[in-house]
Amino acid sequence: MSRFQQWFQASGDAQQHLARLFLLLVGGVLLLITGYWLMVLEPQLHENARSNANVLAQSHVKAIADVLSENDRHPKPEHLNQVLDEILILTEQASGKHFVQRIELELDYDVLGMQSGLIPMQRGAAACVECFVTTLPLYDSRSRELLGLVRFYASDHFYRELSSSARLHLLLAASLVVIILSLTWHLIAGMMRKIRSNERTLQSLFEASPLPMVLTRPDSEQVLLVNQAAMDYFKVSKDDISNARTGDFYVDKSDQLHILEELQRHHQIDQYEFEVRTAPGNNRWVTCSGKIIDYKGLPAVILGLTDVSTFKQNQQALSLARDAAEAADQAKSEFLATMSHEIRTPMNGILGMVQLLQRTPQNEQQSGYLNAIATSGEVLLDLLNDILDLSKIEAGKLELSLTDYDLHHQLDGLLISLSERARRKGLELSMEIAPDVPSWLHGDSKRIRQVLINLIGNALKFTESGSVTVTVEKLQSAGDAVELQFAVQDTGIGIDVESQKHLFENFSQSDSSISRRYGGSGLGLAICKRLIHAMGGVIGLDSEPGQGSRFFFNIWLRTAEQVATYNIEEDSAPVRLEPLSVLVAEDVLINRHVVRSLLESEGHTVFEAVNGMEAVTSLQQNDIDVILMDLHMPEMDGITATREIRSLTDPMKAQVPVIALTANILQEETENCRSAGMDGFVMKPFTIEKLLNELSVVLQKRDPTHLN
Ligand code: ADP
Question: CA-CA distances (angstroms) from residue 386 to 454, 458, 552?
Fold first, then answer.
């Protein structure tokens, strides 16, 4: 039998005790009333009746004595009998009962003129056993001589009536008390039944709960009750419970203190997580909820436990996995940054040298070779850019750069830059912008341009003859925003329905023979889709094999006010700058050589530095207009050098514009450049046009007179 059952049994016994107590109480009350009747009330009534009989006798004795004391001394017996009869016939008016039943006289012989002795006389009923008998002396009213004795037999009728009436009242009072007691008992028994039923429900819940439950006292470590689930969980038997101490189960005592504190403060605790020792050497994680309840008239703590070890293990595993994933992600980012730097730096050298070679006189064959190197380099660069872009998007590091820009101007520039490619393939490249398409918009112009370059590039790639048409239409507008549809239609090879389904997935090409024939990584459209999604738009296509394709994307853009700004397109012709003194800080010799040659060919003077420290010194010693600063250099990197420059005491030197030469794609680096006080940055590898354009933008911001 579990302790709970014992307790429950005990509470059942208590109810029986209470029932017995009530019966005793009823018996006691009845006994008390009976005793009161027998010992007190009844004798008192009897005594009263007796004294009343006495008074009655006293009141009649004089009349009898008077008859016996008459002058002629010997009264006639008739006269005496008459007086006695008068007394005997006296009755109570209400009941008609006689007061006196019988009168006996014992007279001296002398009184009745007899010879000698006592003469007995009696009148009334023959005998009266129950009557109250009062014997009184009879004296002569004149001589005070004793005449004899008179004995009155007063009726006990009045006493019996009074007695039975009193008994009746007493009986009624006793019955009332018994009824009240019974009702009280009934009420108490009902309440007890209710309590017992609640206890039974509690017991069933406690016993049947699949959760381990423990009942303890808040101020002691003694375990009062545990249910079966708790016994199984803590691997204890019924016999062990009485010796068990709550403190044995806590791995960390501070948890026990915390739980008790919470219970004392709020009378309950919710979902507190801690570690318990279920068996020697076996710890488990649980959450516990508990309450202070009343148990056997004293406060007790009932605690319910839920095992969360698996959840906890999963959580820990997840957290480890997350740490590992974050570390892997970090490693990936670092790898990408390194690769970007490591590949772009030599690419800068290769493409820069090609640019320089292209500026020297060549025969047709040499020019062909140079073009091939340049094209291959650009393809390689595109591929590198695609991979880096995709990694950036997948790492969630894509950040949109929203600016106000002139869409028409941008599209014109784009078409000009791609028209050469179209012309070479004998394709017609045209653009139609609907008249209601606003020119000034707010958005990430560079990303839209990137998507368009990709789609137009693909159209040109997969079209052998015919045309490629770019259209821009307004689909709808709302407030100051417009939804535009950009579409690129070609008359190329088209795409079958099956391939269309996977076209926007990474590394997807409609046909493996295509990659062999046309080249490409299959990343372009995947990047386009993600970029368009990031801008809140949709991308799609209509295509039929052999008929051509129409790629389109719809995107919402806010319209913007036209701003009078100096706007240089990346692909536009180089700007002319007046001769400048340019300090080139770059550790790779070949890159220094490329930049020097390109700038000198444009009529600028170049100073060289192989690290940041040299750059700061050179700036102080020479008259420098602008600095091109590589970021990663030995001794002192570009960012530190820029900070040093910005803190120089000579204000002219401290304000010299600094342009970063970066081979890295990480956003953090761009932010570091800005916070160090750099004015702009050029991504490696760069063309002379890009370099000059960035130079002019930066210088124009500082001093517009540099522009020719
Ligand atoms: P890739 O760098 O290989 O061109 P994309 O993601 O840009 O990668 O394109 C994926 C594939 O979709 C291409 O290999 C080609 O099979 C198909 N494709 C894309 N654009 C066109 C088009 N205009 N006409 C026909 N096929 C196209």
Answer: 10, 14, 20
Q: Are 156 and 56 in contact (CB under 8 A)?
A: no
Mean pLDDT of all residues in 129-153: 86
460 lines ligand 1 (CB under 6 A): no
Q: Give the pairing type, strands 440-443 and 403-406.
A: antiparallel
**Cα 315-317-323 angle, rounded to 5 deg:** 100
- Asked if residue 522 has its Cβ within 6 Å of ligand 1, the reply is yes
The tens digit of pLDDT for each residue in 28-76 reads 888 998 899 999 989 998 999 889 889 988 988 888 888 877 655 555 6
- Relative to beta strand 268-279, strand 146-154 is unpaired
Specify the pTM.
0.50
Token reading at 63:
């009349």
Torsion, Cα 573 575 581 587, to 10 degrees, reads -30
Amino acid identity of residue 504, one-letter, is F
Cβ of residue 485 lying under 6 Å from some atom of ligand 1: no
Determine the Cα–Cα distance for residues 342 and 40; give it in Å rounded to an integer. 124
Higher pLDDT, 411 or 340: 411
**Ligand 1 binding pocket includes 549 (Cβ within 6 Å):** yes
Say how many Å lie between the CA of residue 338 and the centre of ligand 1: 29
Q: Looking at residue 319, what is its pLDDT?
A: 92
Whether 493 lines ligand 1, by a CB cut-off of 6 Å, is yes
CA-derived radius of gyration, the chain: 62
Query: Which residue lies with its CA nearest to atom 9 of ligand 1?
Result: 522
Quick one: tokens of 342?
Answer: 């490591």
Ligand 1 centroid distance, CA of 318 (Å): 39
**Position of tokens 């693909």?**
458
Determine if ligand 1 sits within 6 Å of the CB of residue 459: yes
CA 570 to ligand 1 centroid distance, Å: 25
**Cβ-count burial of 536 within 10 angstroms (0-12 exposed, 13-18 middle, 19+ buried)?**
exposed
Question: Which of 389, 460, 503, 550 maximizes ligand 1 atoms within 8 Å of its Cβ, making it the mutation to test the pocket?
Answer: 503
Q: What is the mean pLDDT of the chain?
A: 84
